[in-house]
Amino acid sequence: MSDQTTADSEPDLLDRLAWFSPALIIALLALALAGWQWWETRVQVRHLQTELAQKLAASASVDQESRIVSKQALETTQNMSVKLGEIQARLADSQNQQLALQALYQDLARSRDEWTLADIEQIVLSASQQLQLAGNSKAALIALQSADTRLQRLNKPQFTLLRRAINDDIARLQALPLIDTVGISLRLDALIGEVDDLPIASEHEIPVAQTVKPGAPAESSSSRFGRELWREIKGLVQVRRMDAQDTALLAPQQAYFLRQNLKLRLLTARIALLAHDEGSYKADLTAAQGWLKRYFNTRDARIVAARASLDRLVNSPVSIQLPTLDESLNALQASRLGRSK
Fold first, then answer.
1. Are 167 and 332 in contact (CB under 8 A)?
2. Angle (nearest 5°) at CA 116 between 114 and 119
3. Do 257 and 312 have their domain in common?
């Protein structure tokens, strides 16, 4: 019976062992592996979800902070834009003021230059008149040097041609021969002052009455009367010797007019000197020399000195070829036209 039991149990064991075939084992292993992988994947997914949730929370926090920072940056940018607009407006106002100041300075500089040019033009015109009308080269030279000094103080390149023209005219004036106009005029004035004291040839001196010497014997009244009568008779008629046969005899009234005419000749000679009119100057002095020789006492020392002075004056040159200031005037005109353009 036991053998039968054993025989019955063996098929059951074989049946059970048949269930544990390699394919079943592999399937079970695969199923177990798949379950383990599923579990592992689920764990990882949960872990990733947790991490993702944390990151999303952190990202949300950062995003909120970024929004706050962005809002603050936007507000700051808006404030900066407003301030920048104010600064730009102030800068524009400053630039406008600077442009206005520059325009005002240019106007003032232009006005100053125009005033300076007008003053220099007046100076040059005055110098030209001194040359043409009075022949005064010294005054013209001083005026041109003054104009050049004013241009030198300005120190502007646009006036270079004008300064060159003025310096050329200054050089021409400095090269002129020197005429002692003042010295000659003073000698003529001295001669005019001496005319009233010059003796005329037709005049004579009345003899001085003889005085009684002290200690001389007193003469009687009849003798004194006779002497005074004789002196009066001799005074009625006088005989004088004339060295020149054509010596003119002038009445006292004519002598007065002679002296006045001689003064007039010397005065006109002085005017001709100032005008550098050498022909009129020498003609007046020659006429004065002839009058001194014909009507005045040539033996008197004063007449001799006056004639010698007239000789020196006649031989003194008073006329020179004066230059014109056309170069300076033309340069002034060119400067004025250039500024107007």
1. no
2. 110
3. yes
For residues 249 and 202, the answer to whether their CB atoms sit within 8 Å is: yes
Question: Which residue type does 313 have?
Answer: L
R_g over Cα of the chain: 67
Tell me how far CA of residue 260 lies from CA of 138, 254, 277, 296, in angstroms.
33, 10, 23, 14
Tell me, yes or no, whether 164 and 257 share the same domain.
Answer: no
More confident residue, 309 or 205: 309
**Structure token pair of residue 192:** 């005019």
Q: Is residue 170 domain-shared with residue 260, that is, in the same domain?
A: no
d(CA 330, CA 325): 9
Considering the domain boundaries, does residue 267 fall inside one? yes
- Considering the entire predicted model, what is its pTM? 0.44
- Sign of the alpha-carbon torsion through 27, 28, 31, 36: negative
Q: Does residue 263 contact residue 195 with C-beta atoms inside 8 Å?
A: yes
Which phi and psi angles does 99 have, rounded to 5°? -65, -40
Taking only the tens place, the pLDDT of each residue in 108-159 is: 555 677 787 888 888 888 888 877 776 677 888 888 898 888 888 877 888 8
Residue 176's φ and ψ, nearest 5 degrees, are -70, 145
Tens digit of each residue's pLDDT (9 = 90 or more) over 254-264: 788 888 999 99
- How far, CA to CA in Å, does 216 sit from each of 212, 213, 219, 222, 290? 7, 6, 9, 17, 50
